[in-house]
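User: I've been trying to design a sequence by hand for this structure and keep getting stuck. Would you show me what you'd pick, starting by listing the structure so we're on the same page?

Assistant: Good idea, let's start from the same input. This is the structure you sent:
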């Protein structure tokens, strides 16, 4: 019958196509590459290899940095209780500390200072210098777009690592709030400087 003949032809056609396909070498599309240059055919191992080269702060380092900031505040005699927040390269909060009697808003401000650094790859002071006062309207719009995680005043410091190729890598940030902006920033810089291999960018 016609149906049987049609099925036979489809089987023959499928067999021919499979044979033709198996005789040609497979090549990846030019755009199918993992970040870092690894080929997708490498599977999970290739992905792991590409991601291992992205440095970021660890929890232990972040904890040590936050404690160093509070020690420096005590050393220079700051009376205002501080809040300290350390984030990793992706902006995730690793450590958040607040001293006794610290006002409720200061941890939020410290977090916003740290987020400013990783979101823009610059310190909160650098943001202030770039936009205030000449472009204050623009930075207000940016703050609104960022949902409040952007502040143009000192106290947020970028943590930078220089890799073996001499490239600048932002590995995290620290935000300090509670005292004057310059004092907050000083404690943040000292905290970053307490970690070997990491540079502070105020």
């Amino acid at each position: 019958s016609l149906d049987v003949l049609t099925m036979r032809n489809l089987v023959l056609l499928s067999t021919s196509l499979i044979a033709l396909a198996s005789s040609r070498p497979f090549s990846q599309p030019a755009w199918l590459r993992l970040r870092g240059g690894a080929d997708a055919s490498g599977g999970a191992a290739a992905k792991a290899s590409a991601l291992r080269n992205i440095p970021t702060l660890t929890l232990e380092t972040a904890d040590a940095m936050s404690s160093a900031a509070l020690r420096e505040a005590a050393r220079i005699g700051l009376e205002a209780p501080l809040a300290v927040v350390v984030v990793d390269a992706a902006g995730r909060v690793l450590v958040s500390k607040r001293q006794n009697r610290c006002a409720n808003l200061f941890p939020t401000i410290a977090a916003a200072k740290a987020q400013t650094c990783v979101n823009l790859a610059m310190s909160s002071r650098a943001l202030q210098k770039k936009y205030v006062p000449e472009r204050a309207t623009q930075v207000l719009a940016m703050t609104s777009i960022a949902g409040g995680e952007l502040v143009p005043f000192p106290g947020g410091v970028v943590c930078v690592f220089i890799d073996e190729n001499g490239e600048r890598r932002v590995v995290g940030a620290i935000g300090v709030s509670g005292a004057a902006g310059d004092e907050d920033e000083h404690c943040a810089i000292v905290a970053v400087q307490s970690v070997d291999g990491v540079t502070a960018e105020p």
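That's my pick for every position. To get oriented when you compare it with your attempt: The first strand starts at residue 83 and ends at 88. The beta strands are 83-88, 93-98, 156-162, 168-177, 199-201.
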